[in-house]
Amino acid sequence: MSTTQQLHVVFGTGPAGLTLVDELVSRGHRVRAVNRSGQAPVSAEVVAADITDLDAMRSVCADATVIYNCAHAPYELWDDLLPKLQAGFLAGAKSSGARLVVTDTLYMYGPTGGAPMTEETPHRATSHKGRLRSEIADRYLSSDVPVTLARAADFYGPRVINSALGGAVFFPALQGAPVYALGDIDQPHAYSYIGDVARALATLGERDEALGRVWHVPTTSDHTTRQVHDLIGQRLGAQIRHDVLPAATDQAWGPFDAVFMREYAELFYQYLEPQIVDCQAIADTFGLRATPITDALDVTLEWYRSLTAAPVSE
């Protein structure tokens, strides 16, 4: 796909959306970022739109070549909001003829007993949220728009605050305080570097052979959570201490409020078994591989160090 004057429209200006905008701009694309406020700290056009307003979506996507769904919805709103967001994206893509790239989760696979997850892993979610994501994914893939789904694990990296490997780890680590961790920290756990997520999304948006299927973004799965934290400690010259939540709870814990913890309880299994993501398909097809975790942690620590006392929002 030629990059000349093609418009790539990115919905959502959280870590994935903002990092994707930077990646697309660096590739020479014309980029429009869309959120509810019409404001975002990016060097691209930013407009306001409500994804659930189908007419607004048709308008804001009218001249798009590629549309990216990087929108975030709080867990407690998923039942009501995710189907409406999907309807908006499908309307925008269908009316413009644009291809649609969807940022997706691993929740639909459910517990795997530690078996590596591939794009062909059956959907056996035991959680309501996992079953909902499975239904949403199936509707995308059976729609009449050109679509591809990019599945990632827990994000980490610059701009990523609200994550199990985000502010709950890096802020206290830099302050010499115990870091927060979930479940069994001696199990391998998958982490997706936000720069790799953005590169995968941008590549999938450019390539015809990406369409009509699911791809796992390049993800690191060969470290336990404790080992990842130890790598952070090595870079800080300090021994990392932990405040571990061993089991799901509906109470506030650490930086996470009670609403989040209650909603997340059904997904807690991810931290009680090995979580391993097979990303060979995207490596074989597009040459995309995970950034070495040591390099990614260096960049992440540099970003966290650069933060001022001003609040950082996602």
From TrEMBL:
It comes from the Bacteria. InterPro entries: Epimerase_deHydtase, Lipid_A_modif_metabolic_enz, NAD(P)-bd_dom_sf. Pfam families: Epimerase. Gene3D superfamilies: NAD(P)-binding Rossmann-like Domain (3.40.50.720). SUPFAM superfamilies: NAD(P)-binding Rossmann-fold domains (SSF51735). Residues 12-209 form the NAD-dependent epimerase/dehydratase domain. PANTHER family: BIFUNCTIONAL POLYMYXIN RESISTANCE PROTEIN ARNA, UDP-D-APIOSE_UDP-D-XYLOSE SYNTHASE 2. This is Epimerase. The lineage of its organism: Bacteria, Bacillati, Actinomycetota, Actinomycetes, Pseudonocardiales.
